[in-house]
Every structure is written in C-alpha cells, then in structure tokens.
Amino acid sequence: MSQNLSIGYVDLRVFAHVTEDSEKVLTAVRNLLTPDLVETVQFTKNSLTGHHGNAITFFTAQLTEKKLLPTLLEKFGQNISALDKEELHTNFNLHLEKTNLYLRFDKQAAFLGKIKFAQKDPIHLKIHFKNKSTDEILEILKKFEMLP
C-alpha cells in the first residue's frame, strides 16, 4: 500500500508549558507514532518565553523515512474516531494548504495512548505530500481510512 504515496516528510511541533513535564509531552508525541518511527525521531528543543514571562519549551522534529511514513497514516486510520474522521472530511479545506495536510492532536489523549483531534494546545503535524493534487491526497486518506 505504501507504493507511490509520495509522502515527502512529516513535521512535528509541540509546546511544553512550564506547568507540564517535558518528558510526558514527548511521550504523548511518541504515542502518536508507530514503533519504527519512534526509533528514528530526533527532537530539537528551543526555549521560549510566553506572553506573561512564563517559560515554554518548543519541540520540533522531522520524520523523513519515506518507507515508514505510510505506517503513520495507517495508524491514524485505525485509531481516529468516526467523529474525527467526519470532522476532517467536512473541514478538509481548512486542513490542506497546497500539498501539506495539517493535523492537530490532543496532548492529554495522546499521552494516554488515544488519537484524537484537538484545537487547544495540540501536537501539530504537517504531512507533506510530494507532487499530489487535492483529489489524490483525498484518495490516499480514504485508502488509509482516515476519512469516512
């Protein structure tokens, strides 16, 4: 199923606020990934200051193992709720910019091993599809059961 998907890379971004345990936040991100991708992920850490002077740690990573990236879509398709799949389908144009699919996942749910969309303080994923049209991206997501 992984042939000709043309997923170029996946960018991960997440903020760990001063009130959060950074390791637990990274565990939440890793829980979204497949075991093979967890082995390859390397996070970059940056220190930021919030609006009120609070410390924030910003973690980023890029997944580039093209052979492993389709397994991420497979995991999402198997674990995203029907309601989240419907939301993605209904608001697809809000999640897609050119050939990039933007998804936001609930940190707390991910820490508990669940895959759930969220808007507030999420784990950000950008999936870059190389040389794919909107219709082709829709078909790929349907193939992996990420859409109803």
Please tag this protein with its features.
single chain; alpha+beta; 6 strands; 148 residues; six-stranded antiparallel β-sheet
Give your account of this protein's structure.
The protein is α+β, with helices and mostly antiparallel strands and 148 residues long. It is 38% helix and 28% strand. It is built from seven helices and six strands. Strands 2-3-1-6-5-4 form a six-stranded antiparallel sheet. Strand 2 (44-49) and strand 3 (55-63) form a beta hairpin. The longest helix is centred in the N-terminal third of the chain and has 11 residues, at 22-32. The mean pLDDT is 94.
Could you give a quick summary of the protein structure above?
The chain contains seven helices and six strands, in the order E-H-H-E-E-H-H-H-E-E-H-E-H.
Query: What share of the residues does DSSP label as strand, in percent?
Result: 25-35%
Which series of helices and strands comes N to C?
EHHEEHHHEEHEH
Number of strands: 6
How many angstroms does the end-to-end distance come to?
Answer: 18 Å
Q: How many separate helices? A: 7
Largest sheet report: 6 strands, antiparallel
- Rg over CA atoms, rounded to whole Å, is 15 Å
What is the SS-derived class? Answer: alpha+beta
Give the averaged pLDDT, no decimals: 94
The 3D shape can be described as globular
Layout of helices and strands:
Layout: E1 7-17, H1 22-32, H2 35-40, E2 44-49, E3 55-63, H3 69-79, H4 82-90, H5 92-95, E4 96-97, E5 100-105, H6 107-111, E6 123-129, H7 134-143
